[in-house]
Amino acid sequence: MEEYHRHCDEVGFNADEAHNIVKECVDEILGGEDYNQNNINQWTASIVEQSLAHLVKLGKAYKYIVTCAVVQRSAYGFHTASSCFWDTTSDGTCTVRWENRTMNCIVNVFAIAIVL
């Protein structure tokens, strides 16, 4: 059992690391842009693909799910929720909220440990 815990610590999900990776991707793709309906599909696809590629490059034993929503800023706000049934000792999640004067972006990362 001790070996298993050491293994978990080695590959443990680091939410701060994931947050920084995703935030960099969002900044790179959306930074300096104004909301434009015609670009949303490309922007969201790029955000999830680049975030996923960088997470996988970490080489940890995880399956990742990355979601992204971009909406035009309005007086109505933007609300999301998620729920997971998983092992809280090994699996994890992080959410990146990003905004500028014309749009809001929320990216969720869900990391599910691969048990070998």
Automatic annotation (TrEMBL):
Belongs to the dynein light chain Tctex-type family. This is Dynein light chain Tctex-type 3. GO terms for molecular function: dynein intermediate chain binding. Homodimer. The cytoplasmic dynein 1 complex consists of two catalytic heavy chains (HCs) and a number of non-catalytic subunits presented by intermediate chains (ICs), light intermediate chains (LICs) and light chains (LCs); the composition seems to vary in respect to the IC, LIC and LC composition. The heavy chain homodimer serves as a scaffold for the probable homodimeric assembly of the respective non-catalytic subunits. The ICs and LICs bind directly to the HC dimer and the LCs assemble on the IC dimer. DYNLT1 and DYNLT3 compete for association with dynein IC (DYNC1I1 or DYNC1I2). GO terms for biological process: cell division; microtubule-based movement. Its main location: nucleus. The keyword Chaperone does not apply. It comes from the Eukaryota. Gene3D superfamilies: Tctex-1 (3.30.1140.40). InterPro entries: Tctex-1-like, Tctex-1-like_sf. Acts as one of several non-catalytic accessory components of the cytoplasmic dynein 1 complex that are thought to be involved in linking dynein to cargos and to adapter proteins that regulate dynein function. Cytoplasmic dynein 1 acts as a motor for the intracellular retrograde motility of vesicles and organelles along microtubules. Probably binds BUB3 as part of transport cargo. Required for the efficient progression through mitosis. Pfam families: Tctex-1. GO terms for cellular component: cytoplasm; cytoplasmic dynein complex; kinetochore; microtubule; nucleus. Keywords: Cell cycle, Cell division, Centromere, Chromosome, Cytoplasm, Cytoskeleton, Dynein, Kinetochore, Microtubule, Mitosis, Motor protein, Nitration, Nucleus, Transport. It is found in: Chromosome, Centromere, Kinetochore; Cytoplasm, Cytoskeleton; Nucleus.
